[in-house]
């Protein structure tokens, strides 16, 4: 057998082993994250809970989200909705829906202080009027099933947690977007390894914008949102604050109880992630470039190699690609999606790389991020280190 053929077989076999190890690590890690639907009910008295929702220009989805909160089978509960300077019908919708339920507290913000991101400021303003023992920070478009909070708060109480994050299901209108959400989840989970967050000896931490449940006393002790006032990745960084302060946190799968209509079009995906790309790696572009190269070399190249090579090497790459698709399909099912959305997997890998590169370059070109009609300078964003 020629040397070049031996080398090709060696490379293809090594590629298969590397992918197998990476996917096994991801799948075993996910097995350590419990499903909220399997959690036992708490036998004691449920603690009081305040839900804080920040909303800016959310007229498309906010009514469905608010009505799901009003139908929650949980008591005692307080619903705090902060309208953060919306220029569409968001404020009008909030006021109309709030008239139907005395538990809803509405705050309309007219201005934004300097050195604050709008959402972070709105969440802190909502928390300031909260009376519950627990605070739940969630997004305006999240839809909850009626028993969702009974299970999650019960779990937090049973396991003496100070912070509980929950992974929701993504509601996407097309299989292409479902596939993108799956690819995003693969890399998000691989980067943050959230199953280690509950280990007090591990630096791993986690936070989910759709569901960050935290004890109010802990929130006050970590300085509220003040230390992360200019962080676009406020959900994850809230988790980091809590973990660094020595408090207990964990992540659960809640795809059967919580659903988020993430993005409706590819354009919304591209624009919507503009604020998070650099922040997610603490403004270190070399990490992003390295990860993009890794994605192309490890995750995308097997699909190309199947079309290029023949013989044993091709079958090794078929096995590698199959392993990637099966792993992604399992994650799609865990997130409440459809297994066959992974047929778009190679395409969405390229889309993910495009989003990362485009949004990184755009952030430097603009000298900051453009988020909800407001410009935030890069110098201010980078100065808020954690």
General description of the model:
The protein is built from 13 helices and twelve strands. The termini are far apart. Strands 3-2-1-4-8-6-9 form a seven-stranded mixed β-sheet, with helices on both faces. The protein has two domains: 3-30 and 279-383, no CATH class; 32-168 and 208-263, Alpha-Beta Complex (Spore Coat Polysaccharide Biosynthesis Protein SpsA, Chain A). It is 48% helix and 15% strand. It is globular and about 75 Å long. It is an alpha/beta fold. Strand 11 and strand 12 (374-377) form a beta hairpin.
The number of helical segments is 13
Radius of gyration over C-alpha positions, nearest whole angstrom: 22 Å
Terminal CA distance: 55 Å
Overall pLDDT metric: 93
- The helix-and-strand class reads alpha/beta
CATH level-four homologous superfamily name of the largest domain: Spore Coat Polysaccharide Biosynthesis Protein SpsA, Chain A
Question: What are the segments in which pLDDT stays under 50 over at least 5 consecutive residues?
Answer: none
Number-wise, the strands total 12
Total separate domains: 2
Tell me the overall shape: globular
Q: Which CATH-level-2 architecture of the largest domain?
A: Alpha-Beta Complex
CATH topology of the largest domain: Spore Coat Polysaccharide Biosynthesis Protein SpsA, Chain A
Q: Percent range for helical residues?
A: 40-55%
Q: Look at the structure and give the CATH class of the largest domain.
A: Alpha Beta
Helix and strand sequence: HEHEHEHEEHEEHEHHEEHHHHEEH
Mind describing the biggest β-sheet? 7 strands, mixed
What fraction of residues sit in β-strands?
A: 5-15%
Strand order of the largest sheet: 3-2-1-4-8-6-9
